[in-house]
Amino acid sequence: MSEASKNVVLSVKDLEVTFRKGRQRVSAVAGISFDLYEGETLGLVGESGCGKSTTGRALMQIVPSTGGEIYVDGAELTSLSKKEARSLRRKMQMIFQDPISSLNPRRRVKDIVAEPLDCWKTAKGEERDAIVYDLLNKVGIDPAVYGNRYARQFSGGQCQRISIARSLAMRPRLLICDEVVSALDVSIQAQILNLLEDLKKEYGLTMLFIAHDLAVVKNISDRVAVMYLGKLCEIGPSDTLYAKPAHPYTSFLLGAALEADPEIEQNRATLSGEPPSPLHPPSGCRFRTRCPFATEKCASEEPMLRDIGAGQQVACHYPLVGSHQ
Amino acid sequence: MLKYFIKRLVALVAIIIAISIGSFFMIQLLPGDLATSILGVANTPANKRELYARLGLDKGLVQQYLTWMGHVLQGDLGKSYITGESINTSIGKSLPIDLEIIFLSQIVAFACAIPLAMKAARKPNGLFDRLSNGLTFGLLSVPSFIIVVYLVLIIAIKAQIPGTGPGSFTRWPEWAWLFTDTGMFFTTVGHNLTSMVIPTLALSIGSFVVYFRVLRSDLIATLQEEFITMARSKGLSSRRIMWRHAFRPSSVALLGTAGINIGGLIAGGFVVQYLLAIPGLGGLLIASITLQDYLVIQSTVFVVAVAVIVINFTVDFITTLVDPRIARD
Amino acid sequence: MSTETNQNNNPDEDFLVVENLTTTFNTARGPLPAVGGVSFRLGHNETLGVVGESGSGKTVLSRTIMGLQPRTNVEVGGSVRFDGHEIVGATEAELREIWGTKVAMIFQDPMTSLNPVTKIGKQIGESLHVRLGMSKDEAKARAIELLTLVGIPSPEERYEAYPTQLSGGMRQRVMIAIALACNPSLLLADEPTTGLDVTIQAQILNLLDELQMKLQMSVILVTHDLGVVATRTDRIIVMYAGRVVEMGRTKDVFKDHRMPYTRALLESTPRVSNPSHTRLKTIPGRPPNLLKLAEGCAFAPRCSRATEKCSQERPNLEPTGTDGHYFACWNPLDNQSAPVSSSTGSTKEFGEDNVRS
Amino acid sequence: MTNTETPMIPNEIVVEHPEKREPIGLFTWICVGWLAINLGVALLTPFLPIANPKEMISMPSMGMSLDHLMGTDSLGRDLFARVAWGSRISLGVGLGAMAIGFGIGGPLGMLAAFRRGKLDVALSSVMFTLLAFPSIIAIISILSMWWPRSLAKIILVVGISSVPLVYRVIRAATLSAGSKEYITAARVLGAKDRRIVFRELLPNVAPTGLSFLLFGVATVIALEGVLAFLGLSIDPNTAPSWGNLINDARQSLNDTPQNWPLIIFPSAILCLFILALNFVGDRLRSYFDVTEVKL
């Protein structure tokens, strides 16, 4: 999927996000780089606190990035003026985790979906209504029945459909989905995932899909990136990465994932302990404190993300998988 | 914890300084002619100039403020321009009365509110809860001055209970009496407490209503919490659950309300004092307002404001002891 | 209280007997049947999984079994017999006798389930002190032992901590310590790992397994996650709209399910083992409104196999022929390829391998 | 009054269109009606066929009769007329002061919560310091020295003294609404500040504001009573307020204890008016489910 011939829609170089907590500094995202090619879905997976959501928010400039560059279709986002950045952001949209809280409870559904059109004044009157009607139909909400209802009257799954309709109103190139199905039941989750797949084809979207659920991420993504404590551990095509994880952390993460099948032997060797505080990240490789293969080199030298073939890159001194050649 | 405490203390000092500035300039900037109220007909330009020089009022406002603050910091609030009495003495006589009324009324309010709120919250929407909730909601809408008026009408005039009406306030005996004449001591204490019936009732009803409602709704919310279910699932008695698990988290809101309420009583209790002719701070303030006694007003306002803030500070401190989450934020 | 269960000569099956249990909430909009007639049995040291989506009544079921349901606006019918005690209709004082010491519960959200203003050590020690009559010092010593048991590092220090100072995984460990303080013989775990990260989830589930073996408990594991029950339970119950739609040995239900809902649930769950972009099968529509439940099968409006009968008559649980495997459906799925005999055998083996003996 | 009727149902149960709202209830409508009647009387007093409140039209201290519905006071003035005219003053002070309080405190509170940062720190430290200062003392001191007294001055002083409180409430409500994901969503969609404030924040802050407005009016009306007792409200001879009427009655009741309607009517009407305001405010709060903002 990641051939050089493809257009790069989003390119992230050494992105850093540092928060201030009193006098201390928390580096939530500590320098990550990746490219997103046109039409692909990149899954960003990791445990809570690893910085995956912050990455998404920094890309949308909801939280300011404190270092690095973000290129959208070749234009660098962070160095632009507020006004230019705003118009560049039209190409990017985001859907959030909590479907209910991301819709204003005191506004009508059709106004919520029309919000971007009203903000950018791209469509008015009948044209606007037609777009809204069409979008709501596409996400499976009958506009004739539900268009005039208030957002608070809908269930989580329906709210997420409305959010998706809203995010597509400006026909964005890039869609960032931040844990969009984690608050939903399995049966609803499947509906939303299929809906996203369909809309992605129809609208020619490029997606960054952020989630903690490994199965969900694999299902929807062409490539997957794994984060741990603000850094990228590994990135590669979904099927390859899940079959042959190169980073010990990825391997443990996959081992801990529970499969809905009693015949699959669960890997009982789980990671012990919990991730260290991002206030005091370990030196060298950030995973070394929980890694059974860690050596002195891991403490002194930070592993850089390097190619191990077949589109897979890993940041580990001792990857589990050698070169694919 | 200590860090939080120090932080709060610094804020406290800052607010007290702000308040001293506030009470000083509020009085100074108001219209009104001090010379007229002191000198009366003798208000000639020469006399006025002489008076201002004597009182230090011919200097700049900042200078005046600094002089006043300098004295205040040494514990001297100055002397009344009009009566010449030391303000320390006046406030020293009045403040204990306020403290007594507030102390008594708070004891009564808490003693009634806590058990009743516990009872009401145990069965939300039950008969007792509905009754008490409705009744307190009604009482909430009766301002304290109306309560006093009716209490006086009923207790002092209709029921003819001696020593309870306006002007019947009796002071505590002096310290020395305690050891020499116990009979007299108890008589005076008795008189004092009788004279406290109406003011205590008047203030405690308002406090009770507020405390009851805050504690009740908070308890009901707390009892819905999962950790209460958890406590039940341990097999603890409902008594233990109410007191050990529900009351403590709920008392945070109660304490906060109490802080604001007690502060309000110091500042707002003087309507009651005025109506009952009780010589507390309220009485002092209103008397000095009538006399246009600027320095006394200014000092009283300052003392009351500081008292209110110190009380709020104390309540905050107690709250952090009850709920360790607060100090860590 | 009924004691007739003691006369039964197969105690393993009758440790917990739930019969036609119903829980109905009286709401302003009418009665809401959150649990609509559930029956099952649980043996000693057995692990039962209860699976269902939001609104399936699984949480209400677990609380009703324990008798923890609030008393007002709730009607409970049927019977829950647990080790010689009848739970339904028992007074709170009677229930208090078995709560904590015989049956304990861990809750979904350890943040809200721990008292925020009390040190965690005190919360563990409380039941030791109150229920077992230990002195405060003994209780403290035991509480520290329990903290060690559930794998909390430096337990003496953590004894003094407040819940907000711990991570989610640590809080869940504290919850387990509290629940197990008085050695209960039945543990109800209501979504014990929801909201935890996968690696922490694995730690907690392993810990529960280990403790079940050590302390000889029966466990009811309530969850929405099919992955959690797949390898950690002996038997499972699948719930939909307050009723059991299928139950049986874990392997039978996963491999040989008859109820279309069970299949739909399994097919709509994304799997790590499936290749990327596998199209998920979805269940159309949403879970039903329990206030307006129709006469027939609650799943009928979403079911591809539904016939007219489905919307008119409610199916009862029927045996499949395989031991202990039941389903409620008028148009069940065909018996699938997996041969019945071998699946029974391997289930047993599996149980011995992973759960206990 | 209580929104705790049906909390026993666990969240997991899906009820279609989960409307938490309870029916509005008869008593709420009675309260609304009572408020409307008072407001109507206050607005229309000059046009109503009632006696002149300043004129001695009858014997003093007469009981209730068809001519004088509430009887007459110690100077023979018609009490009903005086109560009706009094509502003009009391409601005027209440609404006027709150108009000033909300006019200044509301926008400032929203601005501080929306902009955050230095502006918020600066505004909030000023406001919270002012809040620590017991406002009633300030009101009394200022009014006692600011002669001659007038309705406008009372409204101004009380209104300004309520600014910090309104500021705090509106700021808290805005902060709470602003922390919701839909604000971030609107920003991401490209909404400008103006749009976010008026389309997203305001509709969610307004219910809190409205219910606090009702509580505020109730408090100010009670406060006017206090001022009247201390002789600091407007001169009862020019126009009586409800507080003035109660104060008058209190004083004259010593001489004519049989004339109880004199105190019962004004105080009952005052209390019932406050009750209705409080009740409607409380219902509004639970109707809009404004739980996160503690007033």
UniProtKB/TrEMBL annotation, chain A:
Keywords carried by this UniProt record: ATP-binding, Nucleotide-binding, Transport
InterPro entries: AAA+_ATPase (IPR003593), ABC_transp_ATP-bind (IPR050319), ABC_transporter-like_ATP-bd (IPR003439), ABC_transporter-like_CS (IPR017871), Oligopep_ABC_C (IPR013563), P-loop_NTPase (IPR027417)
NCBIfam families membership: oligo_HPY
Key word tRNA processing present: no
GO molecular function terms listed in the Swiss-Prot or TrEMBL record: ATP binding; ATP hydrolysis activity
Family that this chain belongs to: Belongs to the ABC transporter superfamily.
Domain ABC transporter: from-to ranges: 12-254
Protein name: Unannotated protein
Pfam families found in the cross-reference section: ABC_tran, oligo_HPY
SMART domains cross-referenced by the UniProt entry: AAA
From TrEMBL, chain B:
One Gene Ontology biological process: transmembrane transport
Places the protein is found: Cell membrane
Residues annotated as domain ABC transmembrane type-1: 95-319
Protein's recorded name: Unannotated protein
CDD domains reported for this sequence: TM_PBP2
Spans through the membrane: 9-30, 101-121, 133-157, 193-214, 252-276, 296-318
Membrane-topology descriptor: Multi-pass membrane protein
Organism: freshwater metagenome
Keyword set, alphabetical order: Cell membrane, Membrane, Transmembrane, Transmembrane helix, Transport
GO cellular component: plasma membrane
InterPro entries to which the protein is assigned, alphabetical: BPD_transp_1_N, MetI-like, MetI-like_sf
Annotated Pfam families: BPD_transp_1 (PF00528), BPD_transp_1_N (PF19300)
TrEMBL record, chain C:
Ranges annotated as biased composition (Polar residues): 336-347
GO CC, alphabetical: plasma membrane
Keywords for the protein's UniProt record, in alphabetical order: ATP-binding, Cell membrane, Membrane, Nucleotide-binding, Transport
Subcellular location, record wording: Cell membrane
Bilayer topology annotation: Peripheral membrane protein
Principal localisation: membrane
An annotated Gene Ontology molecular function: ATP binding
Region entry Disordered, spans: 336-357
PROSITE patterns: ABC_TRANSPORTER_1, ABC_TRANSPORTER_2
Residue intervals of the ABC transporter domain: 16-266
NCBIfam families, per the entry: oligo_HPY
Alphabetized PANTHER family for the sequence: DIPEPTIDE TRANSPORT ATP-BINDING PROTEIN DPPD (PTHR43297:SF2), OLIGOPEPTIDE TRANSPORT ATP-BINDING PROTEIN APPD (PTHR43297)
Name by which UniProt lists this protein: Unannotated protein
UniProtKB/TrEMBL annotation, chain D:
Protein keywords: Cell membrane, Membrane, Transmembrane, Transmembrane helix, Transport
InterPro entries associated with the record: BP-dependent_transpt_permease, MetI-like, MetI-like_sf
Major location category of this protein: membrane
One Gene Ontology term from the biological process aspect of the record: transmembrane transport
Localization, UniProt: Cell membrane
PROSITE patterns: ABC_TM1
Domain ABC transmembrane type-1: 87-281
GO cellular component: plasma membrane
CDD domains in the cross-refs: TM_PBP2 (cd06261)
Residue spans crossing the bilayer: 26-51, 89-114, 121-145, 151-170, 212-234, 260-280
Pfam families in alphabetical order: BPD_transp_1
Membrane topology value: Multi-pass membrane protein
Name used for this protein in its record: Unannotated protein
